[in-house]
Amino acid sequence: MDFEHSNGEHPSVVLADICRRPEIKAQIIVFANEKGGVGKSTLAFHTSIALARSGSKVLAIDLDRRQQSFSRALENREATSRSLGIDLPSPQPIVLEHQTGAMLAQEIARVGAGATHIVIDVAGHDSPIARRAIAMADKLITPVNPTFIDLDSVAHFNAATMRFARLGRFAETVAELRAERCERGLPGTDWMLVKNRVRWAEKLQLKRFDSALDQLPAHLGVRLLSGLTERVAYRELFMFGLTHADCGDLPGMTNMTVRNSDEIIKFVGELDLKTPASPTANAVPRKQRMPAPSMKRYRQTLQRHVGSAIKSRETV
Ligand SMILES: Nc1ncnc2c1ncn2[C@@H]1O[C@H](COP(=O)(O)OP(=O)(O)O)[C@@H](O)[C@H]1O
Ligand SMILES: [Mg+2]
């Protein structure tokens, strides 16, 4: 693959830094794209919860210091867990005081004994720490919204012919880091692109977008995943720190399910992680249960926010 070296820290420096740190046994799953608002944090959160629910020991690292969406979703989850009086399976968050390779390695070593997976949510811009996370990834997931402006960080296309023209800046960085990994005899990175926020109503645009996307495996050595649709549930459950998989376990909501559950289960399955996430592990009720009136209030709030995304199994 031909590419000019993109600006920023040289891949050999990044890899040299990683290689001199202690070996990490856990599988490293990284969500990255230099484009913001494409769903990195949303998908990092869903993946980490699916893994925790399957019994894996998961570390969660939020490298987006400005947005902190991943950490906040985990804080919301803790608050939900407290107010409902149940233990919701959760990853262990790691907070980095300084965003350096040394601090990343130190905290993983300090907190991560016995961890099976490390889920890292990278901020939407290039930085030394973003490069380290990408270079460390066993699994690299790049969500893209299905528009050409969102795909720009990954690839450029000829507008007339719709043929692939060249790599975008983010894809260049990934290509260089993967090549450097290869050079050092490290295992290859499984890089995946996933369409997110797909609206089926935009059929014509989607067809055009898909025909562009289909060219990318040959040019980027990337896998294309099935994709996720635009759903209110992704936005609103995030506020409660919940995922579709939790809803059926919540006291007073055991007959509830969320409409996006099939696609998110499929997405996690397609990541082909070491321990396949099982959506069946249950939340563990704590001793004290929430009194009935506040449970009702909580359920009503959740239903109001998630709206049509939640359905009762009894009515389907
Ligand atoms: N599939 C989806 N359907 C609906 N809203 C989504 C979906 N994925 C992400 N969002 C929303 O899009 C916004 C950006 O997502 P986020 O995960 O924060 O992106 P990033 O981390 O890439 O900046 C958030 O408001 C999030 O709730
Ligand atoms: Mg984010």
UniProtKB/TrEMBL annotation:
CDD domains: ParAB_family. It comes from the Bacteria. Residues 276-295 are annotated as: Disordered. PANTHER family: COBQ_COBB_MIND_PARA NUCLEOTIDE BINDING DOMAIN-CONTAINING PROTEIN, P-LOOP CONTAINING NUCLEOSIDE TRIPHOSPHATE HYDROLASE. This is AAA family ATPase.
